[in-house]
Each structure stands twice: as structure tokens, then as C-alpha cells.
Amino acid sequence: MKKSYFLIHAGLLEISWPPEISESILWEQLSWKHRLEEMMGGKIEQIRLGFHTLSISFKHPVMIREWDDVFEQLLLTEPDISFPESNCWKIPVCYDPEMGCDLSFVAEAHRLSESEVVTLHTSPTYLLHFYGFLPGFMYLGGLDQKLHTSRKKSPDRLIKAGSVAIGGKQTGIYPGESPGGWHVIGRSPVGFFNVNNIPPVVPQVGDKIMFNSISSAEFFELEKERDNYKWIND
Amino acid sequence: MIKEPAYLKFIKPGFLTSVQDGGRKAMAGYGIPYSGAMDQLSYNKANQLLLNPKEAACLEMSLIGPEVEFESATQVVVTGALCKVYHNRLEVPMGKILNVKSGDSIKIGAFIKGQWCYMGVRGGIESAKILDSRSWYQGITPQTKIKKYDRLVYLSDEITFEPQHAHVRIDTAWFETNEIGVYAGPEWDLFAEKHQSALFSQLFTVSEIQNRMGIQLLETFENQMEEILTAPVYPGTVQLTPSGKIIILMRDAQVTGGYPRILNVTEEDLNILSQKKPYQKIKFRMISNP
């Protein structure tokens, strides 16, 4: 895979892979991140991931010659084959139309029944590429093409915490209340972000995620334990 | 002298008063923004004048200032946007170290130039430090802005030292320039060449659509660029939306975004930009990398 980098300024640069959502790009991003921390750890303020990007902000400006040496080294890095041994988390979701206010819209848009949408959404094993947008918001790869749905033209003012939604080629969960332009098809009773925990999230980048359909009775039962939810790892 | 925890109490909350510091710099991996003072230069200055630790938290205030009552003795200083400062109803200069006694009040009055100002308290404000920072941000800290009668903790300190430059004139000329230095962003090359030059020849207007997350400019651009796969963004990232609007991300910006990132405002000029009120003009100036 072709890699290049773009220097924004001496304290911020971005490495990019071909523009696609792919598991092999993620494994390479993670092994590069690991190598970068080994080689330049003390100089790095922060590394951020996108689907096909990895950006590095430095505590102090870096010399371009030093960086070029590091980049040469990275190009020689072999992806770590042990990464795919990650966790697979089962996340309960209630697809009751009352929780998923846009479920019928998504079904109609694709000429599917609501239960077919649920089956298509609960079948794949998703891959957690990175956290972004809001604290605890997972960017997942693996949404079935039959469910790709353009984002709303104007965002909803309030989406409830735990809402499971589809936006374009992606699916995700709103960890807290927020405005949002994705189509909400269900809701999870799980707490996805807790500042009192270290780390504040449970699934880590590179982990797998599966959605598990539950009834509204089960939803309300689990919701009581929102912040003490016992995550199920397969 | 033992430092005692004391409260500062808000008689009037102000329009948008919050606790801010240098921000959370290592938490983007969980989707957590930097946050921190909008005008980092003025925030740092408040701490420097008080000989505070660099990362001490200050009060950030905007447009309508608060009125604060101090429970016991300390020293405070006000920096940033040019505004009226009153110590026990007596007007005092900005940038002056004010020796505050038990029961004293400090009031921030009209904002004359700029829109963000900072009140440093000796030793810093001791609100909860969460994930390595005291900066208030929704979903991270219990609160995002001050309400009437809220109280914040500081450490009282009777030793009223007199720094050599007890009164530093607060100069606002630095943020009155309309030139904003920018670097090319990752999607700059995809931005049609004719637009590239137009971006630097015209004046842009800061719109009313602005908050701690970002500032939208009034003018629109004809845009043929598609959205990108979600990628990292930072305070200072300049995005171009599908409808041709330009958004400059500020301190509370989300950590990733899907709009093309055409430019990146320099760290220094992000402070200048934060002080621009709606309908003020700005002009981009490209800074080339070596």
C-alpha cells in the first residue's frame, strides 16, 4: 500500500494511506503508531487516527531531516500479525421503532422490511477504527452496503444517548446526547463513556463489535445498570 | 503561612464564564477535544503576571463579564479582551495585580475590544482536574458554564508579594490586525487553483455563527470538493463544507471531521482570531513551509 505524508507545519504532520476503509490499513496504522511511539515517544504530543490517515502533533517543532529518517524506518515496518487477536464485544441494541425513530425510513429507502434491516445490521462483525466526533464515539467499519444511507440534509437537534445510527457508509452509537445528522435505527442501554474510568471507554481501537437485538423489556432492565454494565466479550 | 481553601462566589454569572487551562492534550484517542482557553496568549499572560504554574486554571469570560466575591485574601489579574474592571466598584486597570481581601468583589464590565478575557487567581482555580485538565467541556466536566451563586475553590494566600512589574499595560494592538497566518492543509492541493488565489485576495467576514468549537465565515465559495473519509482535525483546521462555507475550528473542536481541510491557522493567530467579533474582517496570509 502506498503511503505518503503531508507536513502541515513543523509541529503537525499527517501520514495517509489510499482512501478506503480497510482492515489492513488499520493494522498498519496501529503498527506504525507503535513504532512511532518507540522511536519518537518523548517528542510526540498526540497521535490521532482517521480511516486512512494518522496525524502526529509534536511537543516542539521537528527537523524535517529527522522526520524523513523516521519515515524511512516506518516504511520498513512490517504490520504486526498479532494485532488481529483482538476482543469482540457484543453490544445489546433495542431496534423497537420507538427507540429507532428512523428505522422505517431506512427500511423504505432500501425497499426492505424493518426486520431485514435489523438482520443486516446485526450480522456483520464491525471493526473499531478510531474514536472521534464526540468523546466515546466509535468509528466502525463493516456496514453492509445494502444499508448505506445518505446523512440527513439538516441534522436533528437532539439525539438521545445510546442511539445506534447510520450515516452514509458508516454506523455508530451516540455515547451522549448531541445533535446529529445520522438515521437512528435503535438504542443501546450501555454506557459507552465514563470519565471516572481509566480508560473512559471499554472497546479499544482494533477490537471487533457485534450488535445483538434485544426487546424493550430487556432494554429497560439493562438500562438500570448503565454505568456498571458487564461487557460481553466473545 | 498555610494556604487555606477558599471560595470565590458568583454574584453575577456573566454570559459565558468557565474554567479553562492549556487543555487536554493526550485524550483524542478517546474522542476527547483539546479544549482550553480560546486565547492562550492572554491566558498564559495572566499566569505569568501572578507567577503561577504555567498550567494553572483561570476564569474565561466572554461578552458580559461576571461579578465575583472572594471569601479570603488572594491576588488576581485580568488579561485578554479590553474591558472595564472594577475592584469593590472602583475602576482598576487590566494587567494590574489586584490585592483582594476577604469579602472583596471584582466585576468585569463592558467589553470594549475583543471578546475573551481571563481572570487569573494566585495559585490557580482548583476546580476538579479530569483527564489531566481542569478545562470545562460538556460530558467531561460536571459543568460547562458558571451559573448565579456558583462557587469555585482557590487557595487563599495572605502573602501579598509585589512583582517588579506590578502593572503591565494590557495592549490590544496584537489582536487588532486582520491578517491571519495559515499553512496549507492536507486537502489544499485538491482546492481548484483559481480558488486558491481568490482565497488570499479577498477579505472575509467573521459571522455570528461561532462558539468555542468553531467560527463560520460569512462569505461562501463555489465548491466542487467532495467530503473526505473521516480524518483528524485540530483547533486551527480550516474546513470547506459541501455548500461552500468556510469553518475555522477553535479550541473545543471535535477530534475528527469529514470536510476537506484546506488550511491550518497558526497557533499564534488562532488567539487573534478568537478575539474577532462578528462582522469584523479577516484576510488569510499563506505561510510556506521550508
Number of strands of chain A: 14
Largest sheet of chain A: 5 strands, mixed
Q: In this structure, how is the largest beta sheet of chain B organized?
A: 9 strands, antiparallel
Largest interface: A-B, 41 and 31 residues
Instruction: Give the helix proportion of chain A (percent range).
Output: 10-25%
Low confidence ranges of chain A: none
Widest beta sheet: strand line-up of chain A: 7-6-13-5-14
The coarse silhouette of chain A is elongated
Strand content of chain A: 25-35%
Return Rg of chain B in Å. 20 Å
The geometry of chain B reads as: elongated
Short description:
Chain A is of the alpha+beta class and 234 residues long.
Structure overview:
The complex is a heterodimer of chains A (234) and B (290). Chain A contains five helices and 14 strands. In chain A, a hairpin with a 6-residue loop joins strand 6 (126-131) and strand 7. Chain A has a five-stranded mixed beta sheet with strand order 7-6-13-5-14. Chain A has a four-stranded antiparallel beta sheet with strand order 1-2-4-3, covered by helices on one side. In chain A, strands 10-9-12 form a three-stranded antiparallel beta sheet. The longest helix of chain A is centred in the first third of the chain and has 18 residues, at 23-40. With 234 residues, chain A is α+β, with helices and mostly antiparallel strands. Chain B has 290 residues and is mainly β. Chain B contains three helices and 18 strands. Chain B has helices at residues 40-49, 193-201, 267-274, and strands at residues 4-12, 18-20, 58-62, 67-70, 74-87, 90-92, 98-100, 105-121, 151-156, 179-184, 204-210, 214-220, 231-232, 237-240, 245-249, 256-257, 261-265, 281-286. In chain B, the strands form three sheets. In chain B, strands 1, 2, 3, 4, 5, 6, 7, 8 and 9 form a nine-stranded antiparallel beta sheet that branches. In chain B, strand 5 (74-87) and strand 6 form a beta hairpin. The A-B interface holds A 6-10, 12, 14, 16, 19-21, 45-53, 55, 57, 64, 130-137, 139, 170, 175-176, 193, 195, 199-201, 205 and B 25-26, 28-33, 130-131, 138-140, 183-186, 228-232, 234, 254-256, 264, 266, 287, 289-290.
